[in-house]
Every structure is written in structure tokens, then in C-alpha cells.
Amino acid sequence: MLSRRAFSTALLTTLAAPLVSRAAAQTASDMGSLAGELPQLHAIMVQRGEDIVLAEAFRGPGLDRVANIKSCSKSIVALLAGSAISQGAIAGVDATLGAVAPSIIPSDATPGAADLTIEDLVTLRAGLEGTSGGNYGAWVNSGNWVAFALRRPMVAAPGGRMIYSTGTTHILGAALAVATGDSLLEQARAVLGRPLGIEIPAWTRDPQGFYFGGNEMALTPRAMLRIAVLLRDGGRFEGRQVVSTDWMRASVRPRTRSPWSGLDYGYGWFLSESGFIIARGYGGQIIAAHPERDLAVAITSDPNAPARSDGHFGRLMELLEGPLLAAP
After folding, report:
1. Inter-residue contact 158 to 123 (CB < 8 Å)
2. What are the tens digits of pLDDT across the range 177-216?
3. 325, 290 in Cβ contact below 8 A?
4. Fold of 28-69+217-326
5. CA distance 141 to 126
6. With a threshold of 0.70, does the pTM exceed it?
7. Is 141 helix (H, G, I), strand (E, B) or coil?
């Protein structure tokens, strides 16, 4: 197993190489070798332009079987929110929860819950106490996940700082289901599944029947890569505009910043300084795109092991920002 120091040394050596030798060193084989030394990593796929330059499954279920993408689900829900707005089911990002889906708001919701906007929810700036971390167990064991999340106290002003909370995205998902009349599964299949030619299996639902709005979706690495290509190409896939250009442009404008990773955050997507647009899921699940470098990436990892910014996720970012970004 490659140590973090050795891994970093390998990256620095590669990046410090002269331009001519760098092109030779940074082959798909070299990138695959570095990726394979990450013990939590299961599979990686990299597409540059129209060419898949790396497709390796080192461990785990492989490239053609589904993996739990964990919180990458949040980014998928964000795309569905954009579609609902484009189709007129929701007036816009300024529409309030009380206007979009009043039926999901409990009578004892925290004051101000009805005034939360779609933008507050999709950027994780609802101000509500989070349901992730230490509150996660109590939340998913409650009898009504949406009501539980909307009863959390306001610990920040809505539209202010980012509070990472799966409950916030679940509220958004439930609102989308009410506003469109279609479940998140139906929306995901219509908006992404059929246009991209990918399978989207059913996933976990809450006690009221709402599909989990921020976790537990499952996709194959190949399907994840197609979503990365969609993201890279501004919402287009194989010549068709699948997600509106306006929503894609709005999605990659920084709205807040993660207090954990330091990455900027737009409409459901993390944004790196180098230009990567990233969906991130627990354990090291990644859907990433770099439009300027014509690059799309899908990564799956052990879904049961943590991947902190100073651990496995940090090493994945080194891989993205180092050899993958620099490769010709």
C-alpha cells in the first residue's frame, strides 16, 4: 500500500517533470497505477473529449454493477430542481417552501420554515440545525423525516452559511415530488435516465413514501461518468440539451463554502479553484467534471469507510488536481 507521503511524492515528481517527459509519464497506465494504490478506491473512469482513457475496477462490484453513490445524490437532486424550474413546476429559485409544497410543512415547524426558498435548500443554507453527523440516526429513525428536519431549530439565518445536512436536501426532494406530481425516481428516470441511456434503480424511501433526497441512490460507474460528461458539457449529452444552460451556469457559481473541505459550493455541486465541478459522497464517491480540460471523472470507493478531506477524499483530490488534470 502506498503511504500518503509516497503518494504525494509521486504526484510531486510527476508534476515537476519537464513538459516532454510529463506527457510520457502521465499515461492512463500511470494514472491507473496511482489510483490502484488507494486502498479504499473501488473503481475509476476518466473520459477526455469523446475518449474513455481510463476504466479500471480494482476492487468492489466493478464498472457495470451499481454502487451506492451516497451524498452524490444531493447533486442529482439539484439537477432535478433545475428541471422542475425549467418545466414551470416551480416558479424559480426564489419560490418558498410554503408556496411550492405547503402540505409537507408540519404545524409545529420551526418559525420561518415556510419562508425557506428553493435556493436556500439547494445550496444547503436553510439555517436549520443539521440532521447529518450526530443527529443522523435519530432523524432516519423518526416517523416523518421531512417534519423532523423542519422542526430543527434555526441555528443560522437562511441564505447565510452552509450547514451540511442531508435533511435539507430531503426537504427539497419532497418539495420537488409535490410540485411536479412525480416521485424523485420518476423525475430522475425522465430527466437523466432516458436521455443519458442509464439505469436508475429504485432506492430508499421515507415513511411517507418520499424517495431519499440526499443519500442512498445507486448508479454504475459508467452511469456516473455519463452524468459527469453532461456536467462537463454544460447540460448537453450527445447533442441534446438535457438540463438547461441557464441552470448549469447558475449551478457552478459559488454561493457558499464548505467549512470542512474549504471547497466552494453552488447549486448542489462543490467547486475547486482549478475548475473542477464535483459531487461528493461518503466513503469517496465522486462525479467530477472539468469543462476547460474537457475532462469527466467517475470514482467509487468503499461506501462503509470514512473519506475525510485530510484522508481518502484528500488523496482523491490530489489525484484529480494532479495527474488527471495535468495529463495530455
Report:
1. no
2. 999 999 999 999 999 999 999 999 999 999 999 999 999 9
3. yes
4. Beta-lactamase (3.40.710)
5. 22
6. yes
7. coil
Q: Measured at the alpha carbon of residue 217, what is the angle toward residues 212 and 223, in degrees to the nearest 5?
A: 150
Length of the chain: 328
Residue range 107-165, pLDDT digits in tens = 999 999 999 999 999 999 999 999 998 999 999 999 999 999 999 999 999 999 999 99
Q: How far is it, in rounded angstroms, from Cα 300 to Cα 44?
A: 7
Domain boundaries, the chain: 28-69+217-326, 72-180
pLDDT at 230 over 90: yes
Helix (DSSP H) and strand (DSSP E) numbers for the chain: 15, 12
User: Cα separation of 41 and 76, whole Å?
Assistant: 22
Q: Residue 41: name the closest of 286, 289, 324 by CA.
A: 286
What interhelical angle do 166-180 and 72-86 show, nearest 10? Answer: 30
240 - beta bridge partners?
Answer: 237
Q: C-alpha cell of 181?
A: 406530481
Burial class of 223 by CB neighbour count within 10 A (0 to 12, 13 to 18, 19+)? buried
Neighbours of 144 (CB within 10 A): 15
